[in-house]
Amino acid sequence: MRRKGFSCVRCGHCCLNLVDAYRGCVSDADLALWQREGRSDILAWVDSVDLGHGNVLHSVWVDPETRDDVERCPWLVELPDGGGYLCGINDVKPEHCRNYPEHRRHGEATGCRGFSLKG
Question: Residue 115 domain-assigned?
Answer without folding.
Answer: no
